[in-house]
Please model this.
Amino acid sequence: MRILNLNLKEGVVELIPESIDDLWHLVNILRPGDVVEAKTSRVIKIRGSMGEVEGRSKVSLKIKLRVEAVQLDLYVKRLKIYGIVEDSKDVEGLKGKRHSINLKIGESIFLFKSKWLPNELERLDRARSCERKSLIIVSIDRDECCIATVGEHGLDVKAEIPIRLPGKRSGEQWEVHVEENLKFISEALSRLDIDEDVFILVVGPGFLYEKLADHLRKEQRFKGRVKTGKVSIGGVSGVYEAVRSGLVANYLGEIRLIYEAKLLDEVFKLISEKPNMVTYGIKPIKELASTGAIKTLLVSERLLKNLSDGELDDILKAIREVEQRRGEVVFVSSGLENDRILGLGGIAAVLRYPIA
Model:
């Protein structure tokens, strides 16, 4: 992400998203009530002398919009921002009306906030300094195949393909069916917009994933970038297992998704094996924040977006107290891990010492 101007005193930042991951960062940064300013377009009615509608014209304009909701469209790679028009110098009569801004990669936008939360500033910093990384995972077994991309924004399932194979006693017929399935998967991969430097990690149990990897290596467009790894199951479950097992880290390094998954794995392990070394929920965290007992605090960004002003102030106070006592604060952002921590009330802590 390119930051063109950052003025926290006035609560404004001007930036340009440079990837789909940057758009994902903006999904988590923008909250209802924030104001954005960007170029957009609107269809206006052209009226005659008697007020009758003679036609319509699409005009480009720059507006300020008070945010109500945001939606990321991964397919067309754009962020749709819905809200109420605060100001428009180009077209009269728009103020107070509902409108939307379709923000695409490479387009600039201004963000205005009355209060920047620590996780939002951390996201800006991470997006500005982040080296963009991505990976294609193909997880296959005898029943199904899943193709997914892994990046800073998390997992994006691109295709789920059923696998239909006869029994091995079918001889040549079995080999024909295998080749047909491998060809179909290869064609599905070819339809994706994959950069030339992106690795393809083929995983699965048994032998089928190795056959698929060999099949892909014979094709010029995939040559030199197909890797393999063993997991216990195919399909979407196999993709998640590849992320958690460390296979993905071999090629992407410690991306955010893996880091969050490891921390939450530790929390759930402690809940099971050493429950007095972990705590979760807003009330217990507030009580322990000032004691120095919290080693690592995990906070769901989705939780922060849905709290009332009073509750948000309490959480922010707890976060500051943990940081002042040299505890680590991690804001959980990826969809899968957010679902896991929300099951614990949206906030959890690994402790330095046991608490009864």
Summary: The chain has a mean pLDDT of 85. Residues 21 and 330 are 18 Å apart (CA to CA). The chain has eleven helices and 16 strands.
